[in-house]
Structures are given as structure tokens and as C-alpha cells.
Design a protein that fits this description.
This protein has 575 residues and is an alpha+beta fold. The chain has 19 helices and 22 strands. A hairpin with a 2-residue loop joins strand 3 and strand 4. The longest helix has 25 residues. The structure holds zinc ion (ZN). Zinc ion binds next to loops.
């Protein structure tokens, strides 16, 4: 992704804000950062866990943009010295978006971060979360037990919410009462009673949990176990006939058990209550189109041998130059998991006061668990992710005296030289792909496959009333190889549309004025040494209707005998 520049003389700042949000959402971004720098506001978007520079908003327009974003998210625009939280729910063109916004005063100015909530992953179902066959069977067994506690662990951004919501979706049946306590409620699930923690009024996890237990629940989701009190109530609830699902911020199964013991959860209760632990990380997936095979380094060989007991001579790696469909050889992410099903040996050991951490470790890792490393390496063997990714996300505990960095650099260097030779041969044989040629000559692109995502965006949102000029401008859009993520963008169009019943009041039309103008700068579609620089091209963007819901909606499902579908929808103004 290369950076873009907007023409601020012709484009109202409101349109720029809308466009940035829409572009990020369509690119599958999870967050948008607006970082105040001395020379302006740097906008970065996070795709597949990686922040990428998108545009630099000049200092003169910085304040306007910040104000616009605060206004959209219902923040106090006159307050700039205190942190604020807000949210945006509404339609941007043809996209319904649900976003959480945070504003933080820094020494350079206000930093705003927008988190785009995406439910599509959780809605796909458990079988699409990347569990290996063995782990998936374990998981199914664990959630089939009507009581006990199942924990999902991992750092922030490891996909814990997606996994817990997917489990909840699987368990969500008419005949069970599911109540959640969350901070925040990230996704509304029909048929489930969800409670939002509000610490300002003393409504914390523990208080809500005590009340939940009086509501005859079958299944309880606790957003996160953060303190001893919550941990104790959770464990007690799970041995009194409830299925408890929760997340905890630890690295792996072993650390989770240790953490719970450190939280003073009684051993005999824990040994009875704990059903299983799912630990996970997210690894970037290799682009299937341009991944490359290479020989394994000595360090990799040793790790494969130690962890899986096999000799591996060749693995797939990322083509770090990437292709038209990926970013640096990666596209999308997959979870790497460790699923520990608590067996009788572990139960017995947990009950033993004198059990040392070392003994517990031995017990956990000699059980039938597939460790994070083993699962990760298997996914490397399958060509789904790279060893480099596994090395990055998992702390490899090994006595191998390694200099992996140096080894890898050498292998990559060799690989590059081979590729350069190949590229040279290809160029001389004039076998440049259609896409490449059109970029070089800057001619309209005929290939459907390479159609720029921007033009998809534009076509989707254009109102039928475009005048002649706009139409002419539109055809120019084709000239700009705006993004290489065509396929991904299309995938993201499948963001679920929220039905009209969800809309609480008449949506406010916030903006639908003049069309913004974008100047797109040099693109890096090609990684050839002698890349031709295309002139910056003016592209006129369409007008986009944006409507924001003015209030936060809370839906409480009332289960009733004659109509389980009845819902009462209430509204609460943002405080
Ligand atoms: Zn690729």
C-alpha cells in the first residue's frame, strides 16, 4: 500500500474523513490511527495486525479533521485536554459500520484511534477458526460438557473475542439461557442477554456475576477474568451446574493455571471446575500466489526436529517483495492454537498443595496437548504461514544456541538473488503480465482481475445522478492502480447488513456535499529495479451518503413461551 494525498483545496474535510473510514473498512482494516506529528496528522491503518501509513494530513487541516471525527463519535469537541471515548454506528455509502473511538491528548496534539468492529469472522462458525482436526475435536468435547469452565487465553489482538463469540454462537440454542458480562460488548448476538460493565457506577464483573447467578443461567460468558474476585465467582459458578466461558490474559495453558492459582482460586475447586484451556496467537498467512519454497536453516531444522521429531529440508516462505494480491508476501491471518483438555492426572495434581511449577509443566506438556509451537510448525509445513511468523509470535523455548537472524538473512539474500535472475530472464523475454504493462504505460486496465479497488468502491456508491463531467472522471479512475488488494476488498463487502429494525431513530444525514478529490501518488505495484514513476493523477471521488445513528442502542431479548422472537428495543443517550 502506498500513501495517498488528498486535495484539500477542493475537498471538504468531512469528505476526507468519510473516505478514510470507508477505505479502511473496505481494505479489511481493524484500526485507523490519527497520529499528531510536528508536520501534520499521520493516518495509519492496521491490516492483518500491521500498521501501514496511509496519508499525511497537513497541519492546517489537522484540527478540522480531529474535530470532525470527535463530532462523528459524539465526543465533546470543546474538550481537548482529557481522554475521551466514543462510538460511531452508521452507514458509509453501502457499508454499515460499527466503530469504537478513543481520543488521547498527547504532547503533539490529540491522537484518535478508531477500532472497526468486524463480526464476519465470528459469524462464520467454529470450523473456520483454523483449529487443527485434533484440536477441533477436543474443543467440541470441551464445550459439550454442561458445566465447568473453558478459558480462552492470549494477548490483546490474538483473536480471543472471535473464538469466544464463535463458541457462544454454537451454544446459542432456544432451550438454554445465556447471559454475558462484557467490557465492552463487542457484538450483539440475538437471543443472548448481554450486560455491559460500567465501573463508573460500580457495575464491575464481580457485581454483575453475582446478579447473573440469580437469573437461572445455563451458560455464562465473562468477558475477561482480571481479578481474584471474578476468578473465584467464575470457578464457583462452574461447579454449581453452569458452563462458564471466559478469557484471561496469559501466554499458554500452563501460565493460565499458574495465574488462577496466584489469584487464590482454591485448588480443589479449580481441579473440579477446569474443563479446558485454549491458548492462541494470530499468524500472518502466506500469500498462496507468490509464496516461495526455500531450504530450511540449521536452526529451523533443529526446532522442527525438537518439536515435531521430523527432518524438514524445505519450507514455504513469504516472497517479501509481494505480488499484486498481497502485502510483502502475506495475506490474512490464521490462529495458531494450543488446546489443553484437563485430564484426570492433571486434576489430581492440581489438588496437591505441594505440586511444584516444574511438576505441573511436565504434566501439562506430557499430556496429549499439541503446543502452540507444534501447531504453528504444522501450519508452516502446510505452507499456510512461515517459520519467521511462528518465530515472531511464539517464544521458542530451546537450548539450541541460535543465530537465527543471521541465518535467515543469508537464506533470504540467496533467495533474492535467484529471484532477480529469474525476473531478469522474464523481462528480457517480455513476459510481463498484463497488469504490469498497463502500469508501465499508464493505460486503462483491461484486466478484470486487476481492476482497482477504488473503482469498485466508487461504482458501489455512486448516486445515479452523476453529470457528464463526473462520468468522464470516472473512467479515469481506471487508470489509477490504487490498491492491490482487490480480492480482499471484495471479501469485505460481505460485512453483514443490519436490518432496519435496528435503527432507533431517523438517521441524520451528516454529509453529502461536494465530491472529494484525491491525488494519488506513485504506486509500488511493481518491484522491478527500474520502476517507472507514474505522474500523480487527479481522481474525482463520488459523493457518499453518510448517516450516523445518534444514540447507542441496547437490545434486550425477552424469552417468552409463546413468542421467543419478541424483542424490546430501548435507547440510551450517550453520556
Ligand atoms: Zn502475493
Amino acid at each position: 500500500m502506498s500513501m495517498v494525498t488528498f486535495d484539500y483545496k477542493k475537498t471538504p474535510i468531512t469528505q476526507v474523513a468519510d473516505y478514510i473510514i470507508m477505505y479502511a473498512a473496505k481494505s479489511g482494516a481493524s484500526d485507523i490511527h490519527f497520529d499528531p506529528h510536528s508536520d501534520g496528522l499521520m493516518v495509519r491503518i492496521r491490516i492483518d495486525g500491521e500498521l501501514r501509513d496511509y496519508t499525511l494530513v497537513p497541519t492546517d487541516y489537522e484540527r478540522n479533521l480531529t474535530t470532525r471525527l470527535k463530532l462523528l463519535s459524539n465526543m465533546n469537541i470543546t474538550e481537548s485536554r482529557l481522554p475521551q471515548d466514543g462510538s460511531i454506528k452508521g452507514t458509509f455509502g453501502d457499508l454499515y459500520l460499527d466503530m469504537r473511538v478513543s481520543c488521547l491528548p498527547t504532547n503533539e496534539g490529540e491522537k484518535i484511534v478508531i477500532r472497526i468492529l468486524d463480526y464476519t469472522r465470528s459469524l462464520q462458525g467454529l470450523e473456520h477458526l483454523g483449529f487443527s482436526h485434533t484440536n477441533f475435536l477436543k474443543l467440541k468435547r470441551m464445550i459439550a460438557v454442561p458445566n465447568g469452565i473453558v478459558l480462552v487465553t492470549g494477548a490483546t489482538g490474538s483473536g480471543k473475542s472471535t473464538t469466544t463469540y464463535s463458541i457462544l454462537q454454537t451454544l446459542n440454542k432456544k432451550e438454554v439461557n445465556i447471559i454475558t458480562v462484557e467490557d465492552p460488548v463487542e457484538m450483539n448476538i440475538e437471543g443472548i442477554n448481554q450486560v455491559q460493565v460500567n465501573s463508573e457506577i460500580g457495575l464491575n464483573f464481580a457485581t454483575v456475576l453475582r446478579s447473573i447467578l440469580r437469573q437461572d443461567p445455563n451458560i455464562i460468558l465473562i468477558g475477561e477474568i482480571r481479578d481474584s474476585e471474578t476468578a473465584k465467582i467464575a470457578v464457583r459458578a462452574s461447579i454449581t451446574g453452569h458452563f462458564v466461558l471466559s478469557t484471561i490474559h496469559t501466554n499458554n495453558s500452563l501460565a493460565t493455571i499458574e495465574r488462577l492459582l496466584d489469584m487464590d482460586v482454591e485448588r480443589y475447586l479449580l481441579s473440579t471446575a477446569l474443563t479446558g484451556i485454549i491458548s492462541q496467537r494470530l499468524a500472518k498467512m502466506l500469500c498462496p500466489k507468490c509464496r516461495v519454497k526455500r531450504v530450511t536453516t540449521n536452526y529451523e531444522k533443529k526446532i522442527f526436529k525438537n518439536a515435531l521429531g521430523i527432518d524438514v529440508a524445505e519450507i514455504y516462505d513469504a516472497n517479501h517483495d509481494g505480488c499484486s494480491e498481497c502485502h510483502n508476501g502475506y495475506k490474512g491471518r490464521i490462529a495458531v492454537q494450543e488446546v489443553l483438555e484437563i485430564d484426570d492426572d492433571i486434576r489430581l495434581a492440581l489438588n496437591n498443595e505441594k505440586l511444584t511449577k516444574e511438576e505441573l509443566r511436565k504434566l501439562v506438556y506430557t499430556s496429549n496437548v499439541i503446543t502452540l509451537l507444534q501447531d504453528g510448525l504444522t501450519k508452516v509445513l502446510d505452507g499456510i504461514t512461515s517459520f519467521e511468523e511462528i518465530y515472531r509470535i511464539i517464544e521458542i523455548d530451546s537450548d539450541v544456541n541460535d543465530d537465527y537472524g543471521a541465518e535467515l538473512a543469508k537464506v533470504n539474500e540467496d533467495q533474492k538473488q535467484t529471484q532477480e535472475k529469474e525476473t531478469l530472464t522474464e523481462t528480457t523475454n517480455s513476459t510481463i503480465s498484463g497488469a504490469t504493462q498497463s502500469v508501465l504505460s499508464n493505460k486503462p486496465n483491461e484486466s478484470k482481475n486487476m481492476e482497482p479497488a477504488t473503482s469498485t468502491t466508487i461504482n458501489n456508491q455512486t448516486t445515479p445522478t452523476i453529470d457528464g463531467t463526473t462520468l468522464v472522471e470516472q473512467s479515469n479512475v481506471q487508470e489509477v492502480p490504487f490498491t492491490k488488494k482487490t480480492e480482499e476488498t471484495q471479501e469485505n463487502n460481505s460485512t453483514p447488513q443490519i436490518t432496519s429494525t435496528e435503527i432507533v431513530s431517523q438517521p441524520q444525514i451528516i454529509s453529502s456535499t461536494a465530491a472529494p478529490v484525491i491525488v494519488s501518488e506513485t504506486k509500488s505495484l511493481l518491484n522491478l529495479a527500474e520502476q517507472k514513476q507514474t505522474e500523480p493523477t487527479l481522481v474525482e471521488l463520488p459523493k457518499v451518503e453518510v448517516s450516523i445513528e445518534p444514540v447507542i442502542k441496547e437490545t434486550v431479548a425477552i424469552p417468552s413461551a409463546d413468542n421467543p422472537q419478541i424483542q424490546i428495543t430501548g435507547t440510551t443517550p450517550i453520556s
